[in-house]
Amino acid sequence: MTEQPVLVEARPNYHVLNLTRPARLNAVTTELHRAVADALDKAEADKTCRSILITGSGRGFCAGQDLSDIDPPQAGKAPDLGLLIDRHYNPLIRRLRAFPMPVVCAVNGIAAGAGANIALACDIVVAARSASFLQAFAKIGLVPDSGGTFFLPRLIGEARARALCLLAEPISAEMAAEWGLIWKCVDDSELMKEAQAICERFGEAPTRSLAMIKRALNASANNTLDAQLDLERDLQREIGRGSDYIEGITAFLEKRKPQYKGRA
Ligand code: T3D
To answer: Is 92's pLDDT higher than 70?
Structure first.
């Protein structure tokens, strides 16, 4: 295919990454992985960019790995799926979690397999009412990857995580929001407005402090309370020396809206 797998739009304060393989429900090819990595590099290098918004075109968000873009298993030669995961999926998930600004995901349709877990790796997930989430892996004899077995039990608890992975049944966006898998479910016609409003709000936020909040929350999954308290102290010490904190306090005392520098 000669199509561009991702379209990037640089808006004043945020970049929109639109997955553009609608005929395949935006299933992930190696080219798409490379295009996303490139788009993330550009967003990080652009100091005016203070959040990113990921969405999909057409009726799906992302159907996971493009199953026609991998070498089919051959008799006597076992494929090494770990290689693909090591090269592309794991670096993507790690990068989204550690990305130094909020990552908003607008799930416009079905999110299946790695597509579901890429969405779950984002910081704020808003889904259209018609969207759904499917841990499709067991249907094709695989195990969830891209952080699915990490995020699911932490977000929705063991019982629901196990049923979703073992039964490989989809859940609606409404149910996902009710269970706490995602931030919000909105009417289809409101999805992009809602996601853009969140990014615009982040455009005025103290971006460095948001990046540190991400660091603290990422660490909390595996830390003891003692370790987490120490980390919070260290991050507070560091961010407290920055200009955005001074601006936040000054604006509060002067009863005006703060003008944060963000990533400048
Ligand atoms: O290498 C490795 O495999 C390791 C890495 C694994 C990571 C993973 O993500 S594994 C999981 C891969 N994804 C899936 O197994 C999901 C496969 N797709 C589906 O089960 C269904 O398409 C959906 C439930 C997502 C949606 O169903 P439906 O009925 O709404 O749509 P559809 O008709 O099945 O799909 C529309 C088209 O997209 C169709 O093409 P066609 O017939 O119109 O030419 C379909 O083949 C294509 N498509 C959907 N998903 C994929 C795909 N093509 C390639 N790869 C896909 N994953």
So the answer is: yes
